[in-house]
Design brief:
Layout lengths: L4 E4 L9 E6 L11 H7 L3 E7 L1 H11 L9 E5 L2 H4 L5 H15 L5 E6 L1 H5 L4 H12 L4 E6 L9 H10 L13 E5 L4 H14 L4 E4 L14 E5 L5 H9 L3 E2 L7 H15 L4 H26 L3 E4 L6 H10 L4 E7 L4 H8 L8 E5 L1 H11 L3 E4 L1 H9 L4 E3 L2 H4 L8 H19 L1
Helix pairs in contact: 7-9, 10-11, 11-17
Length: 428
C-alpha cells in the first residue's frame, strides 16, 4: 500500500542511485523542540507555547531546565474551558501575555507558538500577535509561528520562527553595498569563529539570523547575499528571496571539507583571491584534519544507516563518507529540498540510496536486513534497536551540539565514534 516510489536524481553525484519517496508512519519530534535551542540564541526573546500540558512536559523535559531557573519559554495551557468554548481564548491569551510581560520586563520580543491543540481549535495566533504587538509596542514586538508536529519534523520549528522574523527585518537602502547574512541558529562560539574568518577574508558587513538580541535584526534587500547554515530553512530562504535577497547554494559547514566549501562560496562572491583564502583558512583546516584523523581510524570502513529525522542527514552523510570513510547504507531525510541540497548531493558517492519521508516499518526492515555498524535515528527508535544488538546515535544530539565549523569538526566526528567505542567496550 505504501510502497516507496523511486525517483532518479541524475544531476547529483549519487545520480545512479534512487530516491525512495515514502509516505507512511513517521517517528519524529514536533517543531516545539526548536525552542530548546532558539531561546538560548535570542537573549531577550520569550517563547510562549499555546498548547496542552503535554506540550509543556515535552519542552521542559527536552530542555532539562528546572522551573525556578526562569527559562525564556513557557506554556499557556489550553484547558477544558477553552476546548468547550466557555472561555474566550483570545481574552485568556491577552490576560496571560499581560501577566507575563509584567513579570518579565526584560522581554523585547515575544513569540506566540502554535501547537497541535491550538491549531485543532483554530486559535488565530497571528491575529493575537498583531493585536498584542500594537498594545505593547514599542517596548515589545509580538510575533507568531507554528510549532505543531502534525505535518512537520522538529527542525522546522526553527524554520518557522526565522521565517516569522524576516518580514520585520529593516529594508536595506537602495544602492547599499553587498552584505552577507548567515541564516540558521548556531552556538555563540561558532558564530564568533565564523565572524573572525569573514573579517580576515575582508567579507562584510556580516549579520546572523537569528540575532543575539531582538533589536539587532539586519537590513535585507537586493544586495543581501545569504548563506544557509542549516539545510532545513526552506521557508526562511523563500521569505528572504521574496525580500530581494540572493541565497547562495553551498555545502553546509560540517567537517573540514564542508566548512571550506561554505566559506569559499562567500569568498568567491566577494572576489577574495584564492591565495588570500588559503592563507586565512590553512591553519584552521589543518587543525580540523588532525582532529578528524583521531576518529577516522575507528570509523573508516564501517557502515552507517541514517533514518529521516532532522534534515541534516544528507550533509552528515557527505561528512561521514568523504571525511571519515564510512559506507552509506541508506540516507533518509524527512524532506529533500533539491535546490538547497544540490551541492551536497553532488558530493555523495554514486549509487547512494536516499529516502525522502518515512514508512518506519519498511525502513526498519531494511535496516535490520543490512545490520549496519551504526544507525543514526531518533530517540524513539534508538533503544529498541540497541536491544536488537545494533549500535545507535541519537540524531537530536546533532542539533543540540555545536558542530559547524573547523574547530568543531573533531567534536562532530566524536559524536559518531563514541557509540561505536561504547559497543566495542561492551563486547570485550
Amino acid at each position: 500500500m505504501n510502497a516507496p516510489i523511486p525517483i532518479r536524481i541524475e544531476e547529483a553525484g549519487c545520480g545512479s542511485g534512487e530516491v525512495l519517496r515514502q509516505r507512511g508512519q513517521r517517528e519524529v519530534f514536533c517543531g516545539l523542540t526548536g525552542i530548546v535551542w532558539l531561546h538560548r540564541r535570542i537573549q531577550d526573546a520569550f517563547f510562549l507555547v499555546v498548547g496542552s500540558r503535554t506540550c509543556a512536559h515535552l519542552i521542559q523535559s527536552a530542555a532539562g531546565v528546572m522551573i525556578f531557573a526562569e527559562p525564556r519559554f513557557a506554556t499557556a495551557i489550553i484547558d477544558d474551558r477553552d476546548l468547550a468554548g466557555i472561555a474566550d481564548a483570545q481574552d485568556e491569551l491577552d490576560r496571560v501575555v499581560t501577566r507575563l510581560l509584567e513579570r518579565r520586563p526584560d522581554i523585547r520580543m515575544l513569540f506566540l507558538v502554535g501547537s497541535c491543540p491550538s491549531e485543532v481549535i483554530k486559535l488565530d495566533l497571528s491575529r493575537a500577535a498583531g493585536r498584542l504587538s500594537q498594545r505593547f509596542s514599542p517596548a515589545v514586538r509580538v510575533l507568531s509561528y507554528s510549532g505543531s508536529g502534525i505535518e512537520t519534523t522538529f527542525t522546522q520549528g526553527e524554520d518557522a520562527c526565522l521565517a516569522a522574523l524576516v518580514p520585520t527585518m529593516p529594508e536595506a537602502a537602495p544602492g547599499s553595498p553587498p552584505a552577507l547574512l548567515v541564516a540558521g541558529a548556531m552556538a555563540d562560539i561558532v558564530e564568533d569563529q565564523f565572524r573572525r574568518v569573514f573579517d580576515e577574508l575582508g567579507i562584510g558587513p556580516v549579520a546572523f539570523l537569528p540575532p543575539r538580541r531582538a533589536n539587532e535584526l539586519a537590513e535585507v534587500g537586493p544586495n543581501t547575499r545569504v548563506l544557509l547554515a542549516q539545510p532545513f530553512l526552506a521557508d526562511t530562504a523563500k521569505a528572504l528571496e521574496n525580500r530581494g535577497a540572493t541565497v547562495m547554494p553551498a555545502p553546509f559547514p560540517l567537517g573540514e571539507e564542508g566548512t571550506t566549501a561554505w566559506l569559499r562560496t562567500a569568498a568567491d562572491a566577494w572576489g577574495v583571491p584564492a591565495e588570500r583564502f588559503e592563507q586565512v583558512v590553512a591553519a584552521r583546516r589543518e587543525r580540523a584534519r588532525r582532529a578528524l584523523a583521531i576518529h577516522r581510524e575507528r570509523l573508516v570502513g564501517r557502515s552507517v544507516f541514517l533514518f529521516p529525522d532532522s534534515q541534516l542527514e544528507p550533509p552528515l552523510a557527505r561528512f561521514l563518507s568523504r571525511e571519515l570513510g564510512m559506507t552509506l547504507v541508506e540516507v533518509g531525510t524527512p524532506y529533500l529540498h533539491r535546490q538547497h541540497l544540490a551541492p551536497e548531493l553532488a558530493l555523495l558517492p554514486a549509487g547512494t540510496l536516499i529516502s525522502e519521508g518515512q514508512d518506519v516499518d519498511r525502513q526498519l526492515d531494511r535496516c535490520r536486513a543490512a545490520r549496519p555498524d551504526l544507525v543514526v535515528c531518533g530517540l524513539g527508535l534508538a533503544n529498541p534497536l540497541e536491544a536488537e544488538g545494533l549500535t545507535t546515535k541519537w540524531s537530536i544530539e546533532l542539533v543540540f551540539t555545536p558542530v559547524q565549523g573547523y574547530e568543531q569538526a573533531g567534536d562532530l566526528a566524536e559524536l559518531f565514534a563514541r557509540p561505536v567505542r561504547r559497543r566495542g567496550l561492551l563486547a570485550a
